[in-house]
Amino acid sequence: MSTAQHRWKPLLICPGEEMSRHNRSVLTEMRLEFSFIAEYPRAGTIGGLLSKPGCNVCFVDVATDQERSLSLIAEAAADVPVVALNTSNDANLILRCLRRGAREFLAEATLEQIGGVLDRLLPPHASASPKKPARAYCVMPGKPGCGASTLAASLAIEFKRAGASSVLLVDADSVEGSLAFLLKLKTGFHLGDAVRDWKRMDQDLWNRLVAPCHGVAVLASPENPATPVEIDRATALGLLAFWREHYEAVVVDTPGVRSGGSEFATACEELLLVTTNELSALHATRRSIEFLEQNAIERARIKLIVNRYTPATGLKREDVEVALKIAPYALLENDYKVVQMAVLEGKPVAPSSHFARSVGELAARLTGKEKASGKRSSLFALGLRKN
């Protein structure tokens, strides 16, 4: 075995009994330290399964269940190189695997073939700094009208301002999508075009779909709200795999738990659930949390953002936590007039405003660039307590 192969620690996901036995034997013969899972993990869990044992390459059995394995490839490819394992050279299946993000395809996993694959997967300059892993943020309203779209747009612009090399902002609400309105954008293409063509997506096609705005690439929703845009889990995973390859940060503004919103919530690393401290908004948000939990999204994954926080006219932080059984991740200051002025002008919220500073502090915390507590706004610092 080459010296390069010693750097790999595979995760083998192989429900097929005979294929599993053969591949484990080969990996053992190669003296590789590997982890093994005898069933396809549920959506949203592959990141943890890779990170806990420190696996840096994933082998996936695509023969036992093609659809589940293809969704898994799209999810895993965001974190590590993926090798698809089959029992034959099926040209159509090979193409589908590659489109979902697989780097290699093996129909006969011999010692020599796996060794060759691992050598090819090694970066050409192993000593160079690795590419910063892309992160996808799903911004979801607990109740319509909580300001989730304004937050999504402001957060994407803040990521870029803070140094992200490339940022994508996606409007996934095909009916009530407002990002193009907020940013005063006119685009000829929309999310529906990306959904329709995601299986054949490439850089040239993608560049036609997005519009630049304040340094951020924007994929708008359809101008006609009656345009059907069907987003299932496989589509969400496939699109996110492509986006992660081309952007450092991806912000997806969803319509809530309906109309594909939960599919993006499952596939993104971060789920920001936006509410206000009004009683009716908290009631709707509680129901959204229950829906997410029933769709395999643990409560612990949810980062609760309380927007337009006004203790004098709504529930206080402690009451919000009791009502939703989630401690607020951040409290964003109520800066209504400034935000409305930005909407009228189609510009980002003024950086000196209370709201913009709150969003900046939220972005810093999400990216691990949080500054000393003395520079936080008082409301944002309050939102960090007990978290």
Notes on the structure:
With 387 residues, this protein is an alpha/beta fold. The chain folds into 2 domains: 4-121, Rossmann fold; 135-384, P-loop containing nucleotide triphosphate hydrolases (Rossmann fold, 3-Layer(aba) Sandwich). The protein is built from 16 helices and 13 strands. It has helices spanning 17-29, 46-51, 66-76, 91-100, 111-121, 148-161, 179-183, 191-197, 203-209, 233-246, 261-267, 279-294, 317-324, 336-345, 354-366, 378-384; strands spanning 10-13, 35-37, 57-61, 82-85, 104-106, 135-141, 167-171, 211-213, 216-219, 249-253, 270-275, 302-309, 330-333. Strands 8-9-7-10-6-11-12-13 form an 8-stranded mixed sheet, with helices on both faces. Helix 4 links the parallel strand 4 (82-85) and strand 5. Helix 3 (66-76) runs parallel beside helix 4 (91-100) and helix 10 (233-246) packs across helix 11. The chain is globular and about 65 Å long. Mean pLDDT is 86; it is low at 125-130 and 372-376.
